[in-house]
Amino acid sequence: MNLKIHDASGWTIFIFGVLALILGLIGLLRPEFILTVMGFQVLERVNRLPGDFTLVFVIASSMASFNMGVYYVLAALNNIKIFYRWPVPFRVVTFLVFSTTVLTRLAPPAWLGVAAWELSGAIATGLALKFENNKTVKE
Length: 139
Hints:
It is a single chain. The protein has 139 residues and is mostly helical. The chain has one domain (8-134). Helix content is 74%, strand content 0%. Helix 1 (8-29) runs antiparallel to helix 6.
């Protein structure tokens, strides 16, 4: 088994995966911290009304982030190139959706950081793949 990162596109996938995994783990352990970082008002648990499932939703999202992080890390370490292409357009869509939630005032301005993170990751991976593809064609 040759687990290593082979190129720039692999590094973009690996770094995103590690960060998603770490943020997912933090959200599982401290969902209030994730809400704070994203600019949402945080209520003490004792002040939450019955039927307020905000923390449960953050925990569910954090579990998805953790799992996605593991997938990305494993894809990078196994050099699964086809996987690298798939997230690029979907991360652009995520940027558009997250930006729209801020523009329509459904989310606080700090949420733009999450949108920018998605767009920058899509651009970084897309450019790395394009560069690597051009390099392969010239060889």
